Amino acid sequence: MARLRKFVAYRRLKRPYTRTSKFKAKSYIKTTPFPKIARFETGDTAKSFNRTLNLLSKSDLQIRDNALESARQTSNKLLETHLGLNGFHLKVKVYPYHIIREHALASGAGADRFSSGMAHSFGKPAGIAARIRKGQAIFQVRVDKQNTELAKQALERASKKLPCPCTIVVENR
């Protein structure tokens, strides 16, 4: 399996180059990669909790689906070990729908001859990402009042896995 390219190449929230071709088959992306997020909601979905904590983004950017899954796993593990499955409700609020394309360049001897004339290459699908705006909620955790500090700690751990600065906002219900 190929190594993932650094996400610095895809982080900016700019409209990507879109191919327009006289051949219809070359004007769109044929396949969409599956999202790597296993579950978008974990914990007790039916129970009503009196505290809601949101992890908000401080900047506009794109977040790859494997970063979202990694953040979800770390926060879910902490909440599950301390509170059990019925003591919280964790929800991923964003969906990775934006297809990341990459044009794999040849490397090695004579690679400069193959790479010429590729100024606006369309690329093949390499993965998917969620487009995040400033102030948008990425994760939401609902817990009881006595477990607020643990939920904050779980969201802080999740924010360490994301490529953006984040804030945690607590709401009473």
Walk me through the structure:
- The strands form 2 sheets. Strands 1-4-7-2-8 form a 5-stranded antiparallel β-sheet, with helices on one face. A 3-stranded antiparallel β-sheet has the order 3-6-5.
- The chain has helices spanning 65-83, 111-114, 148-160, and strands spanning 41-43, 51-57, 61-64, 89-92, 98-102, 124-132, 137-143, 166-172.
- It is built from 3 helices and 8 strands; from the N terminus they run βββαββαββαβ.
- The chain is elongated and about 65 Å long.
- The mean pLDDT is 86.
- The protein is α+β, with helices and mostly antiparallel strands and 173 residues long.
- The protein has a domain at 29-100 and 125-172: Alpha-Beta Complex (Aldehyde Oxidoreductase, domain 3), CATH 3.90.1170.
Q: What gap, in angstroms, lies between the N and C termini?
A: 47 Å
Name given to the CATH homologous superfamily of the domain at 29-100 and 125-172: Ribosomal protein L16/L10
Order of helices and strands: EEEHEEHEEHE
Mean pLDDT: 86
CATH architecture descriptor name of the domain at 29-100 and 125-172: Alpha-Beta Complex
Which strand order do you get reading across the main beta sheet?
1-4-7-2-8
Shape: elongated
Q: What is the count of helical runs?
A: 3
Fraction of helical residues: 10-25%
Q: Which spans of ≥5 residues are poorly predicted at pLDDT below 50? A: none
Cα-based radius of gyration, to the nearest Å: 20 Å
Strand content: 25-35%
Reading off the top of the CATH hierarchy, the class of the domain at 29-100 and 125-172 is best stated as Alpha Beta
